[in-house]
Design goal:
Blueprint lengths: L1 H14 L8 E6 L1 E5 L5 E6 L2 E6 L5 E6 L1 E6 L16 H5 L2 E3 L2 E3 L3 H18 L5 H12 L9 H4 L10 E5 L2 E5 L4 H16 L7 E2 L6 E2 L44 H14 L6 E4 L2 E7 L5 H11 L7 H14 L3 H9 L9 E9 L4 E10 H15 L10 H7 L12 H13 L5 H13 L5 H19 L15 H19 L8 H11 L1 H17 L6 H17 L10 H19 L7
Parallel strand pairs: 2-9
Antiparallel strand pairs: 1-6, 2-3, 4-5, 7-8, 9-10, 11-12, 13-14, 14-15, 15-16
Helix pairs in contact: 1-7, 3-4, 8-11, 9-10, 14-15, 14-20, 15-20, 16-17, 16-18, 16-19, 16-20, 17-18
Amino acid sequence: MLIKALCDYYDILSKAGKVLPEGYSNVGVHYLVSLTQEGRVDAITDYQDRIPEILKNGKTKIQTNPKTVRMPKRTEKSAIDSNIIEHRPLYLFGLSYAEDSMDADDKKAQKSHEACVKTNLEFLEGIDSPVVNAYRNFLQNWEPENEIHNGKLIELGKKYNTFRFAFCLSGNPDILLHEDPAVKKKWEQRIQEAKDSKDEDSNVQCAITGEYAPIARIHNKIKGVYGGQASGTGLVTFNNPSENSYGNEQSYNSNISEAAMEKYTEALNYLLQGRKHKILLDDLTILFWAMNAEESCEDTFLAMLNGESEKMDSEATDKMLQDLMEKSKDAEAYQRQLESLDDIDEKVVFYMVGIKPNASRLSLKFIDRKRYSDVLWNILQFQKDMQISEEFRAVPFYRIKKELVSPKSSNEVCNPALLSKVFEAIIYGYKYPIALLETVVRRVKTDKDVSITGNRIRAGLIKAVLNRMAEKEEIPMTLDRENQNQAYLCGRLFAVLEQLQDTASGGNLNSTIKDRFFASAASKPVLVFPKLLKLSQNHLDKFRGKNERNYVFYNKLISEIIDMLQGEFPDTLLLADQGKFIIGYYQQRQRFFEKKNKEQ
C-alpha cells in the first residue's frame, strides 16, 4: 500500500515538475571552484544560500544552507566509486585535511582521486566545450602531492572533508560544468543505453505496477529520517540468507521493478526534504501528503495540528479554526466554510505514515489513508476538545508532549506509545487513552511551577479525555455553576479558598494552600477540606469591618458550593473524579481573572 501510494504520488509530482527526472540526484554544494582554460584553480568561492531568520528577540540571524543543484545520479556505494562530474573533495583533489596543511599520503584519498580521474576522463571523451575542456585539463594536470600547501584548500578548514564542490569557468560563474548541455546530453544517452541493454527475457512482473520489467537488486537509500544513517537508510532490504526465497538474493525477493523503486524512493526523499510534509514525534518521523501537486492541504493540516504553518501564523490559524468551529454544528455551513479555504479539495485522499529507523532498515510503524475532509474534521474536534475558556486558542500538538513531561526532568522523552495513541485518537476521532488522563493528573498534582499556558493545556487535556469517555460534553468549555458533581464542586471550592487566602494576604504569600494541600485534596477531600474551611475563617475575619464587599462575596460563594455538596465531602476520588476536581479548580480560577464589563 505504501509503495504503491508513493509511486502514484511521484507521478503527480513529476507532472508538476517537482521531482528529479530519472538519472539525476540533488546535491548540496558549499563551494564553487573556478577553473582557468588551462585547468588551474583560480578561486574557490562560497556558493551557499543565505537565508535571514528572525529570532524571538527580534534580531535577524543569517543562516547558510548548501545550494541544491542537479547532477548526474550519485553513487550510494560505501566502497570507492566515482561519480560522473564528481563533487566530493577526496575524489576531486586527492587530499585530506591535516593541521594547517593538506595530506597527500592518505591511501583512500589517493585511490579515490585515481578513480575520479579515470571515470570522468572516459566519460568526457569526445565532448568539446570551454568548461568541459577546463575540467579535463584540471583532471589531467592536478597533482595532489604538489598541492599540500594550497592556500585555497587550507582556508576551508577542518570541515573540508564534509564540503561539496561544483565547477565553473573562471570569470563566468554562470557557466557551470554540471549544467553544460553536452554533458547532460551524453549522460542521458548513457541512461537510455543502459535501459536498452537490459535483457527482456529476464523481465519479471513487478509487484507494484503489474508490468513486466527488470527487478531492482538494491533499492536507493532514504535520507532525512530522524535517527537514520547520514548516508541514508533502506526501506526494502534483504540482508540475511533466511530471508531469501526461490534462490533469489537481496531485493530480488521483493519483485519491485527498477522503475517503481526509483519512483517510491524519490517521492519518499522529496517528502523528507523540508518541514512541509513531516513532523517529529520524539524518535518517530511522521510524513503526510495529499494526492495532488498543491501543498495547501498539507499547510492547512500543519496549521490545524501545530497552531501555525509556513503560510499561516498563529493568529490567522486561530481565526480559521474559530470560524470552522462556529460552523461545525451546521453541516452545510461547515462544508461551505471548508470549501472557502484557498485551493483545498476536501475530497482528496490524504496519507499519514510513521517511520522509525532500526539497526539495518526503516521500520514502518503505521500508515493511514483517509479523506482529507475527515482528517480536518477530526483535528477540529481535537482543538474544540482542548478549549477551556471562551477565548479561543489553538493548541499545538508539540505542546501536549511538553506538558506530559515534568518541567524539572532532565530527560524530555515522553512515552512514545502514549504519544502515538494520542495522535491516533486525534486523527481518527477515537477516545483518548486512559494513560493520558493518568499522566496529566499526576503532573498537575506533583508539578508546582507550571506556566499559565501549561495549566490551560493540562486542563484542556483532562476535559478532552473525560468528555470522550462520557461520549457527550459532560464538562463545558467554561465554569458550570449548575454542575453538581462532588469532585467538580470540591475543585471549585479549593480555588475559592485559595483566592480568599491570596486576597486576604494582599497577594504577598510565598506559597498558598495549593502548594501544601492540592494533591491530597484531589485524592482525599474529606481529610483536607475541614482544615481548609477552618483556616478560611481566619481569612474572612480580616475583611470584617474593613472590606464587607469581599466578606460577603467569599462567604456567599463558599456557602453556595457547600450547599451543593450537601454538607459532605467525598472520602476518596478515583482517577476520573480527580480529573473533574482539577477542571473545577481551573475553571473557577479562570473566572476570578476574567475581565468583566460594567454591566456584569
